[in-house]
Amino acid sequence: MIVVPGSESLLAVGSTFGYGGGGAGVPIRELLLVFLTAAVVTFLATGAVRVLAIRSGAVAVPRDRDVHVQPTPRLGGTGMYLGVLVALGFATQLPALTRGFEFNNDIPAVLIAGFVIVLVGVVDDRWGLDALTKFVGQVTAAGILVVMGVSWYIIYLPFGDGGTTIVLDQLQAGLMTVAVAAVMINAMNFVDGLDGLAAGLGLIASVAICVFSAGLLHDQGGDVSAYPPALLAAALAGACLGFLPHNFQPARIFMGDSGSMLIGLMLAAIATSASGRISLNAYGSRDLLGLFTPLLLVGAVMFVPILDLLLAVVRRTRAGVSPFSPDKMHLHHRLLQIGHSHRRVVLLIYLWVGVLAFGAVGTALFDRRVVVLLLAGGLLFALIVTAVPSLRRGRESPPGPSPQNRADSDIGYP
Questions:
Q1: Residue 257 counted as an annotated binding residue
Q2: Residues that bind Mg(2+), according to the entry (predicted)?
Q3: Does residue 97 come out as left (phi exceeding 0), alpha (psi in the -120 to 50 range) or beta?
Q4: Residue 223 in marked binding region
């Protein structure tokens, strides 16, 4: 079992990754090779994609709600997809990983669904799509996952004596899978408003899920059926890392909807795949395992983009407009307005998500009491750093008109 209290926690960390006494090892070296392959291929492919995007006219011209001030090519998601595709193809040639492709269709399903979502994103990046058409494309991609067997079947809830295990029927499983995918896709799409933001969040989230999936792999005694979520997470993390040098402020290329929707879809698919690898015989529904299901893990590491999505839907609905109508009131816009620079906003959101990711993953590896204390300290530090510009401005502002335009002067600049 992963969750080990007190003095045994360090041994649990070692055994989880194949070091220390007992348990089947996790192919860390091979997963790192998949990660590095995705990073290198994405980095190299993105340069070529940038040239093609400029030649094809897939360029983002600055609008009133945008932060960038220079026309910037899109379609970066195609380079990321290529990195994932090549990395997973490379994994099929590694003896330690090849059997993980034979047990189920999870990886082929994600690649096919990913191709569909990238295609929808490319069309939107180049010619533009209305919200309904784009949503239909998202549901279609999620439906491919369901048809090919990637679905939620079991949900753990920690409520009541010993918790509750809910087993979904086929219809419920399909609806939940599509709903989770749609939320994740749109959360990443909504948060993709600053250079390097979506790629960084995707990197943090996928690394966290990869660690969790490696723990599942260990708990299953190295069962090859538990390989797909770890492999997919490693490939996605590499693709996000390989794209970041091109996209960090000032960005030379945007991932566009093709990239942000791909990240959201893959995170949803990885969580869904991992949900089917938890052994009922090993865990049942006891303790706090329900708090550490893949869905809630994703919810923890994706808290910021999902919160941004929910606030946007409420805000726009109350204003009487479509929830998909663009505006300039996202969380990153608000951070810019209180005085943070472009880069500081991105790093701040990295900090928030990183702290939450540590809390989610650390609960499985260390003493929960220690994790809670560190998590509280990390959240307090993040809150203080976030509030510094407002506190400084309130202390330094002389009597008279409020310097309301100060935030605007920082937008788009480090």
A1: yes
A2: 189, 257
A3: alpha
A4: no
